[in-house]
Amino acid sequence: MLLHKTNDSLEAGNPPDPEILERADAVLEEMRQAGVLVLGEGLMPSSRGARVTFPAPGQPRVIDGPFAETKELVAGVSIIRVDSKEEAVRWALRFAEADPHTPIDILEIAG
């Protein structure tokens, strides 16, 4: 799974830069053509979400967004089916070419 991090502009509800979006869409299409893309979706700003925490066992707390730590939030998700971490890194680097300012976390889905 590729987790595309957000930024202050996206968190403020501004649309992504059209040129970056076009380049990212081209990478998604490249993934589709290669048969590795399972899902690719953008996410709404955290102001539209909520966070569930457990300050004490059995006592959930729901906090409405927005959340303060923008650098930890995700703006989009790409789920890919690849044979190795190295292949996942190659695809993440393709996104980095499309938008060199957005960090991407690569995580393996359990199961």
Kindly describe this structure.
The two termini are 13 Å apart. This protein has a 4-stranded antiparallel β-sheet, with helices on one face. The chain has helices at residues 8-11, 18-34, 85-98; strands at residues 2-5, 37-42, 50-56, 59-64, 74-80, 104-106. 32% of the residues lie in helices and 30% in strands. With 111 residues, it is α+β, with helices and mostly antiparallel strands.
Q: Which secondary structure elements does this structure contain, and how are they paired or packed?
A:
Blueprint: E1 2-5, H1 8-11, H2 18-34, E2 37-42, E3 50-56, E4 59-64, E5 74-80, H3 85-98, E6 104-106
Antiparallel strand pairs: 1-5, 1-6, 2-5, 3-4
Protein name: YCII-related domain-containing protein
InterPro entries: Dimeric_a/b-barrel (IPR011008), YCII (IPR005545)
Organism: Kribbella karoonensis
Overall helicity:
25-40%
Q: How many beta-strand segments?
A: 6
Approximate strand percentage: 25-35%
Structural class: alpha+beta
- If helices are DSSP runs of H or I spanning 4 or more residues, what is the number of helices? 3
Shape: globular
Task: Briefly characterize the structure.
This protein is an alpha+beta fold.
Structural key phrases:
6 strands; two-stranded antiparallel sheet; globular; alpha+beta; 111 residues
